[in-house]
Amino acid sequence: MAKNKDSISYIxxxxxLVCLVCAVIVSTAAVSLRPLQQKNKDLDLKSNIxxxxxxxxxxxxxxxxxxxxxxxxxxxxxxEFSDAFDVDSFDPIKVxxxxxxxxSLSAQEDIAGIKRREKYTEVYLVRNDQGEIETLILPIRxxxxxxxxWGFVALESDFNTIVGLGFYSHAETPGLGGxxxxxxxxxxxxxxxxxxxxGELLIEVxxxxxxxxxxxxxxxxxxxxxxxxxxxxxxxxxWLGENGFEPLIKNLKxxxx
Length: 257
Hints:
The chain is built from six helices and ten strands; from the N terminus they run ααββαββββββαββαα. By secondary structure, the chain is of the alpha+beta class. The strands form three sheets. The protein has a six-stranded antiparallel β-sheet with strand order 2-1-5-6-7-8.
């Protein structure tokens, strides 16, 4: 007996089968592409780590350049390197949303607007031929105008002079706060000092056009983007301060971690 192709049941059956086939195709594609997506994500992160330290080289792949990087897990509170987790499987971004691996910040502490700070994270080291650290690359994040900015700041072997700074994820306004990606703005950071001889944290991003060109500690802010400028200044000061990586920096200056 021939089916009535105009019947509601037939139409629903065909629609269901089409949806089922499409769902299977999409799911299969998503699963099969997941390793490639993760690989690209890892390469992008490594590229940004290298860029902050000025280590991206023409003629070398990201993986080749990253081979000189040593990844270490650090206990942020103590400023000591830790073996609490395997660095090969540790995901510092996922950790941020894990309440058991983060701690609440008071309003006074939370100048970066992150609410909770992870107890452990990864930092990245470049050593010279003598095994001494010549570059320390630290993850940083904090709230700007519209979004959390995620990035890295690199320090020289004195752990006080900035090599470079860059953000790999944010949703700030293009042409305004989005100028944190502008190479001309990022070029202000190399050579700036974090703290004075007494250890007082002085690095800051000033209001656009207000930075003292002779200052070792001031970076000119983004014109027309006051809240993003304040956010960047606060997040840098947070992560280089006592609630961030200051304990690690002090340990490294003292010859240990």
